Amino acid sequence: MHISPNDHKQYRYLTLANELRVLLVHDAEAPRSAAALSVEIGHFDDPIDRQGMAHFLEHMLFLGTEKFPRVGEFQTFINRSGGSNNAWTGTENTTFFFEVSPHAFEEGLDRFGQFFTAPLFNEEAVDKERQAVDSEYKLKIKDDVRRLYQVQKETINPAHPFSKFSVGDLTTLEDRDGKSVREDLLAFYHQHYSADVMGLVLLGPQSLDELEQFTNAFFSHIPKTEVVKTPLATPFVTENEKQQFIQIEPIKELRKLTLSFSLPCVDEFYTKKPLSYIAHLLGNEGQGSLMSVLKKRGLINTLTAGGGINGSNFREFTVGLNLTPKGQDHIDDIVTSVFQYLKLIQQHGLAEWRQQEKKAVLEMAFRYQEKSRPLDTVSYLVLNLLHYKPEDIIYGDYMMEQYDQPLIEQLLDYLEPSNMRLTLVAQGGHYDRTAQWYDTPYSVTPFTDEQKTLWKNVALDPELALPDPNIYLCDNFDPLPLEAGSELPPQLIQDLPGFRLWYKQEHDFRVPKGIVYVAIDSPHAVSSPRNIVKTRLCVEMLLEAINETAYPAEIAGMSYNLYAHQGGVTLQLSGFSEKQPLLMKLILERFAGRSFDKDRFTNIKAQMLRNWRNAAEDKPISQLFNQLTGLLQPNNPPYPVLIEALESIELDELPSFVEEMFAELHIDTFVYGNWLKKDALALAETLKDAFRVTDQLYGESQRPLVRLENSGTLTYELDCNHEDSAILMYYQSQETTPEQIAIYTLANHLMSTTFFHELRTKQQLGYMVGTANLPLNRHPGLILYIQSPVADPGYLLEAIDDFTNAFALVLLELNEAQWQASKQGLIAQISEPDTNLRARAQRFWVSIGNKDESFNQRQRVVDALEKLDRVDMIKFIVDTIKPRTANRLVMYYKGNAHSDSESLDIGQPIESVTDFQNKAY
């Protein structure tokens, strides 16, 4: 098995007597043990009269087995063991996965293995979970991704299983003709869930022999059925579905053009990745690229290449373009440009050095790959196990063997007009059809003869160019020698008026990568909603100005980001460290030579308005979360406030705004990873030179927060235009001590499973039901939320209040072992070692921002958790969380389905946001 030299895990591949394929992974340093099982059955296998069956079955397997019959018991066990779990149903796969503290792994596998040998399909659970599937369907009924996906299903070959409805609802899963859906569920399970179409990955600090024992104990008795799965032979599209122009009406303001080409399955070529070669050139964003030229002409904002769905007998290759309003009027010209670029690739773009460049990038990524969370590792390995040869399970994603020009040419031949389907998603078109399930208006018209002629006979466009050799590819991959003190936490090595430099050389993860954060605080940047919006505009304009020249750096394994926050803006660089100073120099040069181009401004302003207006179409629970942070953090306004400010901002306001912004600032820089101290100090000089303004003032921005203190219950009603109702309840700690962080975090940890089980699984109030830990400006916060298609806010409030009133009793009923297990589960999560360089950098950076300059906050929270006993938690629930006495903010939305219901009549409504925010400090 080909393993990265940076990978210290041990692997063992085996096939059990029942033909279950297994990969065992011993990782001595794994903080948790994890398992994933994938079965090669998905919604393609749904019976035509039981659409959504595979998805419904995935839900049901979590709800009780012969050995562990109680509904919700699996989640409770996972939660107490400091873990997490999930599952998903795809077209031809259903995958289940979980992780727990290593000591609980054996019991976890015992419970998990039962899913595939002895599920109960308890009748009451079947009935209730059918409601959950229906709620999941209704939750996404106004989700444009689902709505557009449905049109795609209706416009490909109707005989192909992709055309089936994958989610399911109460009508597809109803009892009918004297036969219950449970009978069909059992038949589907016994027919399809066979060991020979499954893959299993176990990972943990346990030895390979111990993991193999677990495998034999819990998975060797999964039955192998005699049913032979018939390979998929129906074509994804036929000649009838090609050369069609499909127009779709979205709910959000979108303008997206997609060119789709239908190819045979290319999985067998994973060692050569020919489509990656083509997509790499077509999706390039550097100078002269297709994206660059179409952008300069004002026709598009973004371009992606190589996406599309795939299956065991088909592969779709797509080019997706987000259009400007002008672009929407020039669709034929844009498609012409795509074919001109494809012709350029065919005639001049096929060269072995390009493959070698791409291969070098993949090899670097493989050689210096960093660990991911155990749960993420098993999730991707289990799919590789089913799709790659055993020796390539680890390496397959990174392989790019010999250059095969005839194969690339063969695939390029499919990317031509007669094999294309063209889809435009934009508002205001003419439609003559409505998609089932999601009521999406759309139309399908054949290409005209003029279009066919235009696209078939294209000439080369002199403005289009292929990418040059990449100057950002690194040469030196040996990590730099360690200096004295590298094992210490970050050190403040420069503390000047308005400028602080933190530095740490990473001693543990020895990879040639670094991360640089530069936080620029400016009180002027956040002094009003209008200035906050100007800051975000300037960020977007600078990113746009950098993109074309910095794109090769991204290809070479470096990334950069610039983002606005409550104090100003932050620049972040990450990836291979050798060329990071070069990338920083480029970004600072672009900043110094900033130009405020009229067309760019108009385009970016329109994009931002569109994104923020589209956010107003998000599901109600997302809007409540956005409004919550907007209410409590004046420097983080909600979308309606941002939109109002942006609408009237003009280009000529920006140059003076930027000057004023940099007239008073404070910079915190953190240089971390594969960096020497002298190079960090040199980088600091470059930064100081770039941001030095005459007679500068130095000051950090304030980050105000509204404190609820003795507010009692406050309510805020939102307007959303959605069928479902939603409610969000927020409790805030007045202190930021480790003790308060510990008690709020543990309360969320203890409540989450019970809340989900009680209000979603048992009461079936909705699909989105949960609790969350939400610290704001270092103040711990606890949230309980529900989005419901069946109940109005008054009912939801009552259900949550009943839960919080009874929760102290739930705590009393825990035995001492359960109480300690829950606590230790959370402690294990909090004190989990950093998985990789990026995770550690982020933790240090958060500590710097939180003024935790000894970098031991995490340990102080763990110490506080150790001391917490059950009486403290019960007192907290009774004194702080109980509805009658609580200081809390209740935000809600009355869905269209419940428009006749009363507004909430509790506490004090927030009439004026301005007055409310005047209390912020």
TrEMBL record:
Residues 366-640 form the Peptidase M16 middle/third domain. Residues 746-845 form the Coenzyme PQQ synthesis protein F-like C-terminal lobe domain. It is an enzyme of class 3 (hydrolase). Its cofactor is Zn(2+). Its EC number is 3.4.24.55. Residues 21-158 form the Peptidase M16 N-terminal domain. It comes from the Bacteria. PROSITE patterns: INSULINASE. Keywords: Hydrolase, Metal-binding, Metalloprotease, Protease, Zinc. Residues 182-360 form the Peptidase M16 C-terminal domain. InterPro entries: Metalloenz_LuxS/M16, Pept_M16_N, Pept_M16_Zn_BS, Peptidase_M16, Peptidase_M16_C, Peptidase_M16_M, PqqF-like_C_4. Endopeptidase that degrades small peptides of less than 7 kDa, such as glucagon and insulin. Belongs to the peptidase M16 family. This is Protease 3. It comes from Photobacterium leiognathi.
